[in-house]
Every structure is written in C-alpha cells, then in structure tokens.
Amino acid sequence: MSDEPKQQKPPGAQPPGMRETPDEIYERILDEPVNTEPLFLLRDIWPDVVERLKILLMEDGEPELAATVDGLQVYDRCRCGADYCSMVHTKPRTRGERGPTHRGLIFWNKASKLAIRARFGDTSPTTEYTTSLDVVDEEIVLIEILDDHESRRALITALPDKDTSG
C-alpha cells in the first residue's frame, strides 16, 4: 500500500471515458436551441415505458399523473452522450429553476431500493430501471430512465443526434 496521498480530481473534472466534463456538457446543452413544438407521442416510441409508468404512478398513489401518461408528448431528449442516459422532455426544456411547484418522483431499481429502504424507510414501488420524473404544475415535464439500453436505443432512433457539421 502506498503512503502517497490520493490525487483528488478538481471540481468539474472529466470522468474516465467521457469526451467532455460535466460542466462542459451542461454549458453545451444550455446553448442548444429549445424545441417548443411537440414532435410525437411518447407511447409511439416507448409503449412499454408508458405502461410501466402508469402502473408505478398508480402504485405510488399518483392516479392523476398516471392518467396523463398516455397523452405525453415528446419535445426533445437529453444529448449528454452518456450511454446510461435515456432522458426525454415532455414539455419544452427550461433553463435553470422550474419554480415552486416543481417536484421529483424517483422509482428505484430493485438493487438500489434495498439500500434506500433500509436507510430511509422509503416505501415507493420498485422498477427494473431507476426512473426519475420531474413534475411541474402537476404535469410530467421530464422522464429519465437509467441503464435501460433498449429505451435509449429507441429514443436515439426517434431523435438522432443533430448534425453539427455546419
């Protein structure tokens, strides 16, 4: 074991395997134009996710939100480039704060849920993939699913990377 102190990464340092630092990704995404027109229904690309979300929301005591899932529109996706990220905007993307009515819902995957339940006593339902929802004014504005490669593939096929060649 070495007696040398561990090198600490400076804030915003680039994680291994990434082309950009998190700060660079954030700045790039903020600079992209915001789409203000719906492109298609979420269920057209993610029918299984839509059904899963309705069940999770009902099990979590959110029947009003569950009733809206079938009609969610897609405006854009996250373009951070992370291979684990499947994030879709169901309202036009905002810059910065979302206001006082913003709340988040997280449905943890089973492995994460065991640790969270043990530590915090969380009783929300579990799912195969950790799924996070941003809700503003009681409308789902963003859905993020982690490590669901099939959903990511469908999302990128429907909304490919934008051509930046000029």
How would you describe this protein?
By secondary structure, this protein is α+β, with helices and mostly antiparallel strands. It has one domain (38-158). It contains six helices and seven strands. The protein has helices at residues 22-31, 42-45, 47-59, 63-66, 110-120, 149-158; strands spanning 40-41, 73-74, 76-77, 85-89, 103-107, 131-136, 139-146. The strands form two sheets. It has a five-stranded antiparallel beta sheet with strand order 3-4-7-6-5. Strands 1-2 form a two-stranded antiparallel sheet. Strand 6 (131-136) and strand 7 form a beta hairpin. The radius of gyration is 18 Å and the shape is globular. The termini are far apart.
- Strand content of the residues, in percent? 15-25%
| Largest sheet composition | 5 strands, antiparallel
Terminal residue distance? 52 Å
Q: Please, how many domains?
A: 1
> What is the residue-mean pLDDT, rounded to a whole number?
79
Structural class: alpha+beta
The number of helical elements comes to 6
Strand order of the largest sheet: 3-4-7-6-5
The ordered H/E elements are HEHHHEEEEHEEH
Low-confidence stretches: 4-17
* Amount of helix: 25-40%
Number of strands: 7
Outline: globular
Gyration radius, in Å? 18 Å
Key traits:
single chain, 166 residues, alpha+beta, 5-stranded antiparallel beta sheet, two-stranded antiparallel sheet, 6 helices, 18% strand, globular
